[in-house]
Design a protein that fits this description.
The chain is an alpha+beta fold. β3 and β4 form a beta hairpin. The longest helix is centred in the last third of the chain and has 25 residues. The two termini are 27 Å apart.
Length: 131
């Protein structure tokens, strides 16, 4: 198993163990240079978001993986954990709903840009990052 896949599995399992909602693991390795996987999850409250993030951090550290950067925290409704090969996004329920609605509104424009670029890679990337 590749290191990125192992990291993604550890993060996914940590989110699942703390009852993360709607956990998604998205392989972006063929369309992105920023990471190989996005792992996206929702917490039902800010407290659960904190617990999910803390458990991911603990499990990743326990398995020897260092976080490169963290965005959000405290009462933030969205926390991003960057482990280079994987990026973990943990949303509070309301923020995830807003993000999904925003992505839905942006989707036609994103597809148009991808078509305008006439790039198979650009088209695949737009499909991956659209909610």
């Amino acid at each position: 198993m590749s290191q990125a896949k192992e990291m993604a599995r550890i993060a996914y399992d940590a989110l699942e163990a703390k009852k993360g909602i709607d956990i998604r693991m998205i392989d972006i390795s063929q369309v992105s240079v920023i990471a190989d996987y996005f792992i996206i999850a929702t917490g039902s409250s800010n407290n659960q978001v904190g617990a999910l993030v803390e458990h991911v951090e603990e499990q990743m550290h326990k398995n020897g993986f260092s976080m490169k950067q963290r965005e959000g925290g405290g009462n933030s409704p969205w926390v991003l954990l960057d482990y280079a090969d994987i990026i973990v996004h943990v949303f509070e329920k309301e923020s995830r709903s807003f993000y999904n609605a925003f992505c839905g509104a942006q989707r036609p424009q994103m597809r148009f840009r991808a078509a305008a670029l006439r790039s198979k890679t650009a088209t695949r990337l737009m499909q991956v990052i659209s909610c």
